[in-house]
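Lay summary. Proteins are chains of building blocks that fold into shapes, and those shapes determine what they do. In this project we predict the shape from the chain. Here is one chain we studied, written as its sequence of building blocks.
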Amino acid sequence: MSYENILIDCSAGVGTLTLNRPEKLNAFAGTMRQELADALEELERSADVRVIVITGAGRGFCAGADVAYMAGLAERRDVEAMAALVEAGRRVVTMIRRSEKPVIGSINGVAAGGGANLALACDVRIASDQAKLAQSFNRIGLHPDWGGTYFLPRLVGPAKALELFWTADVIGAEECLRLGLFNRVVAHEQLAAETLAMARALAAKPALSLALSKRAVYQSLDHSLDAMLDYELEAQLRCFESGDATEGIAAFIQKRAPSFGSTSRRTSDLGALQRIADC
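And here is the predicted shape, written in a compact code that computers can read:
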């Protein structure tokens, strides 16, 4: 599919989704949120894509909502259109969280408002040393969305989350790294290469194991130790019964690199994720 403000590139098991409105720091306007959700769904369905990368074109990752566009909605008091925008953001972050594939945020510049929380919704974040985050919602009298009130307190704790929401301060890359908002910070000119290296390394790993461990980590936020031990048993047995375990063990014994199967070969295994998660 083709999109007005989203670029997609697929290579060597990595699907890269680029927000492409660089003249506005990739700020969301019009149907861009819906396009992002549709593009994510396309990459999720693709059997050739094992890892998803989200990044921005030009100097910014995503500046959040296009303020000029929002001004028109506010002037018209268009509550229905505003609700639709918030729901589109909800669809995006829900898809990232439920994706069976690792989702890497490659933060190439400023990420503000909804753009900051799109970054936080990704499973891991690798950032340029020029990247910045800002929970800038109250600067224009709005409330955090795109899952920010869920993601941020879990990453930095409630008191720091309130400080960041209330002050709307811009946080630099090194401070984001210290707070745990970024997993890694690299030189700006190395960001694309470092992101691709990480993505390809994950794409070479067993898809089922990665998918089940992703689900386990997120399930653990709301489940007891006993529930997670039950989950681990079922997940471990599913991996043990898969071709990935057979190949991985054989490769280890034979002292060679493993060659794990394609995503398409794991469809029946991955389809059981929800049943296991509901244990």
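What the prediction tells us: The CA atoms of residues 90 and 146 lie 6 Å apart.
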